[in-house]
UniProtKB/TrEMBL annotation:
The lineage of its organism: Eukaryota, Metazoa, Spiralia, Lophotrochozoa, Bryozoa. This is PRPF3. InterPro entries: Pre-mRNA_splic_Prp3_dom, Prp3. One of its GO terms (biological process) is mRNA splicing, via spliceosome. GO terms for cellular component: U4/U6 x U5 tri-snRNP complex. Residues 20-145 form the Pre-mRNA-splicing factor domain. It comes from Bugula neritina.
Length: 147
């Protein structure tokens, strides 16, 4: 059986052009789909993700230690410190309460609160005037997600 297989492999294939069913006018095309190249991740991508996870875990560990210490000693202010939560990460397609560029200028955390303020008195607008200047800030160009 092995010998038959070896002879079949070593035997050169018959020329297709010699067949009576072969049409010389039809050209033979190669593979229809082009080969895909390698798609590498950006350098440091996974290190950044790991660093974020480590800091998040460390924050949770510290909060749990503070809450345990507060329960043991009965200190209410320490329990309040432990309840400080990190900024909630938005899911894809979710709209934030306030955009990051407005958060530097507005002292209120929601657009709805800002719209309910009486505009006749400018001192009630609660803007952070110290953060407004005549300089133009050009943000860093980032690659779009999935691009």
């Amino acid at each position: 059986m092995r010998e038959q297989f070896k002879t079949a492999i070593e035997k050169p294939p018959e020329e297709i052009g010699d067949s009576k069913y072969f049409d010389n006018r039809v050209s033979m095309s190669g593979p229809s789909r082009p080969r895909r190249g390698f798609k590498f991740h950006e350098k440091g991508k996974f290190e950044q993700q790991a660093a974020k996870l480590r800091t998040k875990a460390q924050l949770e560990r510290l909060q749990s230690e503070i809450s345990l210490a507060a329960k043991k000693t009965g200190i209410a202010s320490a329990a309040k410190l432990a309840s400080i939560l990190p900024k909630r990460e938005l899911k894809e397609g979710e709209v934030p309460e306030v955009e990051w560029w407005d958060s530097f200028v507005m002292s209120i955390d929601k657009y709805e609160d800002f719209l309910s303020i009486d505009e006749s008195s400018p001192e009630k607008l609660l803007l952070k005037y110290e953060s407004i200047n005549n300089l133009v800030e050009h943000p860093i160009q980032l690659k779009p997600p999935g691009g």
